[in-house]
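I need you to check the entry underneath: sequence plus fold tokens. Let me know what the token row says about the fold.

>
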Amino acid sequence: MDVKERIDDFKTLNEMGKSGGVVFFGSSYFSRMNINELANNEEMGGKIYDRSVQGLKLVDSLKLLESGVYELNPAKVFVNFG
């Protein structure tokens, strides 16, 4: 996994994003989830953004927080590592 490449990907995707949504941020478990199914659930409270990365290590996650989470200014963030 190239962290710089993922940061660039997230920045590009964030240009289409809206504040106040829901962000899923984490590693392998979240990256394999069916986020589309959750996106159809109105009870989630807003647009859903998948900012998970297969094999992401906790030490590398700090480099991705700005582009993966903070730039979207979400109302909710779900984090999973391990």
The mean pLDDT is 88. Strands lie at 22-26, 48-50, 76-80. The first helix runs from residue 3 to 14. The longest strand covers residues 22-26.
